[in-house]
Amino acid sequence: MPAEEFHEWLRREGRIVIVGASLAGLRAAETLRAEGFAGSLTMIGDEPYEPYDRPPLSKAVLLGKASPDHTELPRRREIDATWRLGVAATGLDMAAKRVRVADGDEVPYDRLLIATGVRARPWPKEDEAQLDGVFVLRTRDDAVRLQRRMKAPPRRVFVIGAGFTGSEIASACRDQGIEVTVAERADAPLVGALGGVIGTVAAELQRDNGVDLRTGVMVTGLEGDSTGRVRAAHLSDGSTVETDVVVVSLGATRNTDWLAGSGLGAGPRGIACDAGCRAFDFRGIVTDDIYVAGDVARSPHPLFGYQFLSLEHWGNAVAQAEVAAHNMISAGADRRPHLWVPAFWSSQFGVNIKSVGVPSLGDEIMITQGSLAERRFVGVYGYQGRVIAAVSFDNTRWLEFYQRMIETGAPFPVDFPTVDRRPEGRKPVPADFPDPSLPTHGPTVTLSGYSPADRHLVFTPARH
Ligand SMILES: Cc1cc2nc3c(=O)[nH]c(=O)nc-3n(C[C@H](O)[C@H](O)[C@H](O)COP(=O)(O)OP(=O)(O)OC[C@H]3O[C@@H](n4cnc5c(N)ncnc54)[C@H](O)[C@@H]3O)c2cc1C
């Protein structure tokens, strides 16, 4: 059948299956219907709930200001789908175009979207991870369990890992007057994502808010009492912290296990796809019927030297899902690339943190507005003479401006005057990222497709 005719048929009566019924899955389904897809749509999700929003789980929900049961994602439109919730996809037969599900059923598709996201990396020692009082935070069920314990309230919460989620949990604890210790292997919180210069500010922020922050240490073990409840954490510096709640915030693992042996280019780093969201098979050849979106995807970006970007960003999940859905039902020339500039936000200790671009690629940073001392500033990251990212603490309004600079490959250091630039912002300083081959809590943006230890890439900015 010629491509045009095939796509007309597909739009009219094709079968589309979406695995992963969360943010990316839902937004893709809505886009498919909005663009006129009239065939059958099946949503397969291993959680028993309709799509809900995760960012509030470590913010409003932990603060007791929102209930985990009321975090459903707002719907843009009706999607008229068959929902198969509480059942995991367990396998994929690419040749027969079928998804196997946990109840033994097989669901056929003409187009498949994989949006299975990530899951929290558990505490690696299984017997210790089983102790009562040891939590992770990724799902609504995790939030219900943790929120219940926070209400008790605990004597002390012990957070392992000072990435964004760990830091937000610590912030929620202090907001409620709960004692909290945070242990981080790197020298400061948020360093994997934002580097040491900003990490120093984040460390002061935590300590000023009463967090017992321990950096440059590893947690060597968790100890339970005779009833199986966690009672202490042991650290590599020989110290012990007594605690009754431990939250493990060690980053995420991509949900690709169910694709083992399928022939798809899926692994621990996610599922590789082209800029049009089409998945690669294990030979690196692009498929035409399998698409990927959201946290599980890794896709090339021209602004970042065509390296593969893995993003754990809410906005990326939405934008990529929209592009994937559009491309699934469009013929070649009508397809669009996913060229979203990464953007992330977090709120902690009363500070609104936002970033655009890929800070972890930057080797230098320049404070272009405000000052680090006031914790109200914009920091711009440079890489090989180009603006590559920006971060703001309580200074959001400038980020759009810097986003344009990233998009156009503007020169770094930036040389325009700004009203509130202070002496510290007149020249760039090393951004001070830890060696990327050493595991820390992990950034929420990862570049891959090259050796993580190799930063000697030629940056080729996009020309418009
Ligand atoms: C606590 C928390 C706070 C966050 N805060 C922020 C923030 O402040 N800013 C920001 O930009 N981002 C934030 N994020 C990240 C943001 O929520 C994610 O980027 C977003 O949820 C990604 O959506 P997704 O649909 O790709 O994946 P997910 O939301 O992970 O959804 C994937 C779904 O697929 C399901 N699934 C997995 N395997 C299977 C299978 N085999 N079969 C069927 N279903 C399966 C999963 O259970 C899940 O329901 C936060 C995340 C968390 C957990």
Brief summary of the model shown:
This protein is an alpha/beta fold. The protein has 9 helices and 30 strands.
Describe this structure in words.
This protein is an alpha/beta fold and 464 residues long. Helix content is 20%, strand content 30%. The protein contains nine helices and 30 strands. It has helices spanning 3-13, 23-34, 126-129, 140-151, 164-175, 191-194, 196-208, 314-328, 399-407; strands spanning 15-19, 40-45, 82-85, 89-93, 98-101, 106-108, 111-114, 118-120, 134-135, 156-160, 179-184, 212-215, 219-224, 230-235, 240-242, 245-248, 252-254, 266-267, 270-272, 278-280, 286-292, 297-301, 307-311, 343-348, 351-357, 364-371, 376-383, 386-393, 429-430, 445-448. The strands form seven sheets. The protein has a six-stranded mixed β-sheet, with helices on one face. Strand 18 and strand 19 (270-272) form a beta hairpin. Helix 2 packs parallel to helix 8 (314-328). The longest helix has 15 residues, at 314-328. The protein is globular. Residues 450-464 have low confidence and may be disordered. The site of flavin-adenine dinucleotide has 35 residues, from helix 2, strand 2, helix 8 and strand 24. Flavin-adenine dinucleotide binds at residues 19-20, 22-25, 44-47, 54-55, 57-58, 88-89, 115-118, 137-138, 165, 255, 258, 294-295, 312-315, 317, 344-346.
Q: What is the topology?
A:
Blueprint: H1 3-13, E1 15-19, H2 23-34, E2 40-45, E3 82-85, E4 89-93, E5 98-101, E6 106-108, E7 111-114, E8 118-120, H3 126-129, E9 134-135, H4 140-151, E10 156-160, H5 164-175, E11 179-184, H6 191-194, H7 196-208, E12 212-215, E13 219-224, E14 230-235, E15 240-242, E16 245-248, E17 252-254, E18 266-267, E19 270-272, E20 278-280, E21 286-292, E22 297-301, E23 307-311, H8 314-328, E24 343-348, E25 351-357, E26 364-371, E27 376-383, E28 386-393, H9 399-407, E29 429-430, E30 445-448
Parallel strand pairs: 1-2, 1-7, 2-3, 7-21, 9-16, 10-11, 10-16, 11-12, 19-22
Antiparallel strand pairs: 4-5, 5-6, 8-17, 13-14, 14-15, 18-19, 20-21, 22-23, 23-30, 24-25, 25-28, 26-27, 26-29, 27-28
Helix pairs in contact: 2-8
The structure holds flavin-adenine dinucleotide (FAD).
